[in-house]
Amino acid sequence: MIGAIAGDIIGSVYEGRPIKTKDFPLFGAGCAFTDDTVLTVAVADAILRGRPYEQSVHEIGRRYPNAGYGGSFIRWLRSRHPQPYNSWGNGSAMRVSPVGFAFETEDDVLCEAEKSAAISHNHPEGIKGAQATALAVFLARTGRSKAEIREQIGRRFAYDLDRAVEEIRPDYSFDISCQGTVPEAIVAFLDSVSYEDAVRNAISLGGDSDTLACITGGVAEAFYGPVPGRIQAKVQDILTPDLLEITEAFCREYPRGN
């Protein structure tokens, strides 16, 4: 989970000014957590407390009204009784990594990922993106090889993962859809040699940088193991006390996620 949050923070300064290189300061001036982190922590909170995803996402999301949500999600947060709005956006995938770290069977991961998505992103592509991301995290943390992850996610979700970052980068542009974000984020992991390399791959695509790196970072952490200490320390410095408390509690409860 720290890996997803760190990816969001690292990618935050490049969302509005996309880059096409892996050569950039890891924590650029002005980097901060965004809605990706807030909602990832909210999903973790729901799992920890055994309460509906909607309740934690609504409550914690409203604490951070300026985190960078999309317009439809802002309306969802402001509603007293929020309802799903058939979104296929990548917001369902960016927040789902705790599901992949917390649950112990593929069926449970897929079921919980759907539940976490459907509170807002109940379009089939929104659910599919969340499930693919959570399952990739689960497969990575349970010892599957990259070849197995590529085959299973590609086959199950009909994503084209037989590409390389160098092939995607030249023509890739900002895309908020699950179908235009999740496969690319997973390829960024598959093409990497370390956690940091995976995040650099994701950001170098030049798209929705914080979300790409958040998705990639969660899978990379699950595969490579704990995020490097210097990156964890930066995350701890940047997170607010309430978000850090939930994050640390989740990592204690699910140590494979830290």
Distance between the termini: 7 Å
Number of helices: 15
The stretches of 5 or more residues where confidence is low (pLDDT under 50) are none
> What fraction strand?
under 5%
CATH fold title:
ADP-ribosylglycohydrolase fold
In words, what does this structure look like?
The structure is a single chain. By secondary structure, the protein is mostly helical. It has a single domain, classed as ADP-ribosylation/Crystallin J1 (ADP-ribosylglycohydrolase fold, Orthogonal Bundle), CATH 1.10.4080.10. Helices cover 62% and strands 0% of the residues. The chain contains 15 helices and no strands. Helix 1 runs antiparallel to helix 13, helix 8 runs antiparallel to helix 9 and helix 8 runs parallel beside helix 13. The protein starts with a helix and ends in a 5-residue tail after the last helix. The model has no long low-confidence stretch (mean pLDDT 96).
Keyphrases for this structure?
single chain, 258 residues, mainly alpha, ADP-ribosylglycohydrolase fold, globular
What is the topological layout?
Layout: H1 2-11, H2 35-49, H3 53-63, H4 71-78, H5 91-94, H6 97-102, H7 106-118, H8 124-141, H9 146-157, H10 165-168, H11 182-190, H12 195-204, H13 209-224, H14 229-238, H15 241-253
